[in-house]
Design brief:
Layout (H helix, E strand, L loop, with lengths): L1 H15 L5 H28 L3 E2 L3 H4 L10 H12 L10 H8 L1 H31 L3 E2 L6 H8 L6 H7 L8 H6 L2 H30 L4 H20 L31 H25 L12
Parallel strand pairs: 1-2
């Protein structure tokens, strides 16, 4: 039980600072506004035409990235990196907490916090998606005609005519909407998104721990994010295997071999790849944490 109390104390210490950190509040507000901007076009159309929209909208936010500034997946993962950019979380009280609990409980507590922060951010995205869909939501296990009309068209409008009359902020993963179950797609996207954010958090933590910097870790994690649209573009040429090198690519359901016949990625393989990456990073962090000197990298007035 002692180890759980120690883990929770680091978790509580880091999350407790969110209430006083304006950066966190700005990121959350900006995230909510982006979700609304990307998705409200579907709800507006559904309300105007008496249609319905599923609440499982996470797969749409994780549509395959393109080399464009208007790529939702890239934006949201950069926002998460900014949320945990101050890793390792060394405050004035940290050296005393490490002396009291030990190095093992320290790095485990910090990694537990990163996992919880990734879970919180994915839950926040999910809740924002739900509220956007709420005016026209359907809880049936289908995408809703408010979405599928943009794939198949209607009796009155072709897809192009529909887009002219009811413009949308983000496209659909068309093959996923045609062939996949929305609830299963939502669950896969949520879990893979959480694993990817946890991976990025560990990258920030490890690089900053090694370099004693609060910049290089952000740069390293951002490289993984920005590789996603590049590798996705390469997959459209002759290099179908290129998305295998980007965890962000694995979060898009239309990258799975269920809807993309030339894809090498499926759910069991994605689970295996995530497991290997996360375990490897945790082992390296455990080794590095034993050898570095714990110093206060930031100072807080009054503590």
């Amino acid at each position: 039980m002692a180890i759980f109390r120690s883990l929770f104390s680091y978790f509580q210490m880091n999350f407790g600072r969110w209430k006083r950190d304006y950066r966190v509040w700005i990121i959350m507000v900006f995230t909510a506004l982006l979700v609304f901007d990307y998705l409200h076009g579907y709800t507006s159309y559904a309300l105007a035409e008496g249609k319905s929209v599923t609440f499982c909208l996470l797969p749409i936010l994780h549509i395959r990235s393109t080399i464009s500034l208007y790529s939702p997946k890239v934006v949201f993962y950069i926002l998460f990196i900014l949320l945990i950019c101050d890793a390792p979380f060394l405050y004035n009280i940290t050296p005393y907490a490490v002396l009291r609990s030990g190095r093992k409980k320290w790095w485990m507590g910090e990694c537990f916090y990163l996992a919880a922060a990734a879970l919180f951010f994915m839950l926040f995205l999910t809740i924002c998606c739900f509220f956007v869909s709420l005016p026209a939501v359907t809880f049936a296990n289908d995408w809703g005609s408010g979405l599928t009309d943009y794939v198949h068209g209607t009796e009155s409008y072709s897809v192009l005519e529909l887009l002219e009359k009811y413009p949308i902020g983000i496209g659909l993963p068309e093959k996923a909407v045609r062939y996949l179950n929305p609830m299963e797609s939502q669950i896969y996207t949520f879990l893979s998104g959480w694993a990817t954010m946890f991976f990025l958090g560990l990258v920030v933590y490890l690089v900053n721990l090694l370099t004693r910097s609060k910049v290089l870790g952000v740069v390293a994690a951002s490289v993984f994010v920005l590789l996603d649209p590049i590798l996705t573009f390469e997959a459209g040429t002759t290099r179908q295997w290129s998305p295998m090198f980007s965890p962000l690519c694995w979060t898009s359901v239309e990258q799975l071999d269920y809807v993309k016949s030339d894809s090498h990625l499926n759910i069991p393989l994605a689970v295996g790849l995530y497991s290997v990456l996360l375990i490897l990073l945790l082992i390296i962090i455990a080794i590095v944490s034993k050898k570095i000197t714990v110093e206060v990298l930031c100072h807080e007035n009054g503590n």
